[in-house]
Task: structure prediction
Amino acid sequence: MLNSAPDLHSTETPLLQTVGLTKRYGDFLANDRVDIEIWPRQIHALLGENGAGKSTLVKTIYGLIQPSEGEMLWQGKRMILSGPSEARSRGIGMVFQHFSLFDNLTVAENVALGLDGKETFKDMSARLEQVSNVYGLPLDPKREVWQLSVGERQRIEIVRALMQDPKFLILDEPTAVLTPQEADQLFIVLDRLKAEGRAILYISHKLEEVKRLCDTATILRLGKKVATCNPKAETASSLARMMVGTEIKEVRAGAERKITVPRLVVNDLSLEPDDPHGVRLQHISLELKGGEILGIAGVAGNGQDELFAALSGERLSQDPGTVVIEGVAAGHLSITQRRKLGAAFVPEERLGHGTAPRMKLSENALLTGHAASGMVQRGFINTTATLKTVDRATEAFDVRKAKRDPEAASLSGGNLQKFIVGREILRNPAVLVVSQPTWGVDAGAAAVIRQAVLDLAAAGAAVLVTSQDLDELAEITDRIAVMFHGRLSQPLATSEASREKLGLLMGGSSLDEREAAHAVGA
Amino acid sequence: MELVEAIILSVLAASTPLLIAATGELVTERAGVLNLGVEGMMIVGAACGFGGAWLSGSTIIGALCGIIAGALLSLIFAMMTLGLAVNQVASGLALTILGIGLSGLIGAGFVGERITPAPHLHIPGLTDIPLIGRILFGEDPFIYLSLALIVAVWWFLYRTRPGLVLRACGDNHVSAHALGYPVLRIRTFAVMFGGACAGLAGAYLPLAYTPFFIPGMTAGRGWIALALVVFASWLPGRLVIGAYLFGAVTILQLHAQGAGVGIPSQFMSALPYLATVIVLVLISRARTGGSTAPAALGTVFVPDR
Result:
């Protein structure tokens, strides 16, 4: 089980050990008697589906959550943490998945807040520059965080953790938002930290990455530890099987799809952002035919949200011709009018954007279906029809819920996403625009959703999928375009879109060259 | 010249309660809490301030009573919005209604009484300099205090670590909690500071502005203070400019009415409020780059343990 030698200075005790660690929320066991051992000079992967209890476990180790039962041993001695600052003082550092940064404060102020304030701000700033140079993580201490890219934000988190000289560093899904090249740079830093004798706990969904980087893997399922193994000796599918507990259905592309007429066309769309931290859309053009699936890749925050708003009609365009749905200039049309043209939209945020959290599923079905699905008759809501929509979506997409018509917020992420995608697909749209269809969704539900998207395209609809998961785009799309700084690259055929090519486009490099050439030509 | 001096003196006096109350609210909002109860805390501060001064004969004790009353009232607000996670807008409005009623009850016995107003500074030689002497060296102590207060708040927010932590709580309470800062405790202190300032601002009215108490004497100054914080885009420097600008509009409309300018008096009295609306519109239109409001302003935070 152990494949890394313990540090020379410490004897045969692990750096950190949890014994029977349990966290209970009412009747729900988020962690159920979890035992885990972390040794120095080790990159230890923590694997599991959403809701398996990974975040609860690391928050307990970082002192944010008090365990209900069980104990933690730090270098062999019992450790009770009153809070994160105590964890930090013992040498435990953490890089959060949802960054714990403050957008309106500067880089240096953000770092200062993560330290314990024993040095002056000036000394701290000097040390910040020194640490960021030593590890090759360049940062400008005076800039405010909202101006920075996602990769730069993560650098702040990592530098902040490193400035405490931690013995043990926890990283929660650090590569989820990075381009492949940025991820490679991160791995170099992590290997270096390991060589310095530090231990790393690495949470990730990306199994190939875990196989490449990690020495040991602990797998959680439904709050329990199911296995500890050497990921290098496993295959990605054997790891996935341990995480999910059953085999995952493969998505089938089906027969050759018939490519028909253009159903969604975007002509030179430019749009100013309506919020001060937003992205300006610049000269976006694309054409999407029936039977086609186009993927839009790119690091989050490069204009994908703004493009979605412009396509769905949440933002209107001055020029009607910029968005053409089913041959009708629709840039100036409202969401409802676009739905009547046969378009359907699935936004990224499930709760609050895709559904009203405190409303029932039938009411949520009505919210997007009222215009074009016969749910409203002479101004009155036909509750039989709305309930029937819920039943159909439940049956077709295997939505698991406690009762027939619960509140949207009571469903798990995967089930709610299946319901939302189902609600839109059951309307038989001619155009489906879907953003992050399987973000934070368990593997089983993700397979159902991807299959449904493929089937919809096979039935003749045009589908536009925005995703940060390159594997997902490779699996279901025909062509992939990349968004960077509000511009959209030329689409590549998915068969020719290697991770390297996409990574370069996501970093903005070759896009600039093309544009320069374009400018010279014009 | 006499008239100019008189106008400047009265502008300074009219601006001071706005400045003190807005300074407190600025700190509260910077921590991420929107307390709409400024008007209520001010009017209770005015009643208690007058009562304290009348019973003890001391301006200082009166001011202290106002501060304590404002802070206690804000503690009720803190218990509701921070302890019980109640909606801040509704709680703030309720606090104002409570304050107006409470001040009537407390002040009922004092209506019609008079006290000696707070003495003005007098430095022989300096205060006697023509024109600027009285303006710079002959004010009441609250005016100097209000300026010292806003400088101290600026220094606290931008030059000290607790100030940085407070701003961090207002920007992103989830992150602040994740880093181990006691968000609710910090916010409680910020709310109480805001309450203490509102109480002092209210007490200023009967202690220095007009030496008697009448119910409802704050006359909407709490609402102007709230608008001032937005006007200043949560920056202490702009708050000073804003407070004196609004004080000036209030006084100038009085003088304009006195001089018989042919504009209906109701319109003139509405000027400060109209200016508030116009300024808010202009600011929201001109907003570019970084957002100015504390990002967590007015949102409820419940830490998971």
In short: Chain A touches chain B through 28 residues (CB under 8 Å). Chain A has 17 helices and 23 strands.
